[in-house]
Specification:
The chain has 236 residues and is of the alpha/beta class. The protein folds into 2 domains: 150 residues, Rossmann fold; 66 residues. 44% of the residues lie in helices and 11% in strands. A 6-stranded parallel β-sheet has the order 3-2-1-4-5-6, sandwiched between helices. β2, α6 and β3 form a beta-alpha-beta unit. α1 packs across α2, α2 packs across α3 and α5 runs parallel beside α9. It is elongated.
Length: 236
């Protein structure tokens, strides 16, 4: 019997594009105050670059198109990373976590800058719904997933062995291969706007299960491990 479920954060428990848009809006307002572009048009330009050009060079792309100095970019990156995001935990996620906590220990293992990830976590309120949260950045960039350290740290926090854990994530290498190498059961989620949904599986590490949303996860767990899981209402 599985004892715990670990989740990735971005594009697993919520659509990461919600955070991206929140940051884009803040930066666009700053640029508008300096005389560059209506905010809505600037956000649209940022999103176009994010999806169709290079998501790692959004501000360079916007600087070129709007004509502001590239010397502003480091400041804009800081504003983006340090902003307090406007986020909402999807109702589906709230219901599934509230249901699963009756039968499994729950945790989150997430990559990214520690302060950024904790701002997301607090904005979503998900820290109140799980038993342990591990931000791999606490150990340094070289220990981000798929390194084993953040996974094993979460297991120790939940007092479970890796082979008794289900890991749910969207990235084929960081999440699925990283968890599978430790003997965890792996579930890959494909959200409609997931940035990595088109990435192929890591060679030799196909996920044990594939889902389109977290409701599918709950349905599978009922059939596989539990005869009954409560259906819970969303947190209001």
């Amino acid at each position: 019997m599985m004892k715990a479920i670990l989740f990735d954060l971005d594009d697993t428990l919520y659509p990461e594009i919600d955070y991206v848009r929140s940051g884009f809006r803040v930066v666009a307002e700053i640029l508008a105050d300096r005389g560059f572009g209506p905010p809505a048009e600037t956000v649209a330009l940022m999103e176009y670059c994010h999806w169709h050009v290079d998501r790692d060079r959004v501000f360079q792309f916007v600087a070129k198109n709007l004509g502001f100095p590239e010397a502003w970019i480091p400041e804009l990156v800081r504003i983006y990373r340090r902003h307090d995001p406007t986020l909402h935990l999807p109702t589906e996620t709230q219901r599934v976590l509230a249901s699963l906590c009756h039968h499994f220990r729950l945790g989150i293992v997430t990559d990214g800058h520690r302060e950024v990830q904790w701002r997301k976590i607090r904005a979503l309120g998900v820290h109140r719904m799980v038993d342990v949260i591990v931000t791999s950045d606490d150990f340094g960039r070289r220990f981000w997933k798929p390194d084993s350290l953040p996974f094993l740290t979460a297991c120790r926090g939940l007092n479970v062995r890796p082979e008794k854990v289900i890991f749910v994530g969207d990235h084929p290498i960081r999440d699925i291969r990283g968890a599978a190498q430790l003997g965890m059961t792996t579930v890959r989620i494909y959200r409609p706007d997931g940035y990595f949904r088109q990435r192929p599986h890591a060679p030799g590490y196909p996920p044990d299960r594939e889902i389109a949303d977290l409701t599918e996860l709950r349905t599978w767990l009922i059939s596989e491990y539990c005869s009954e899981l409560p259906i819970c209402e969303a947190v209001t």
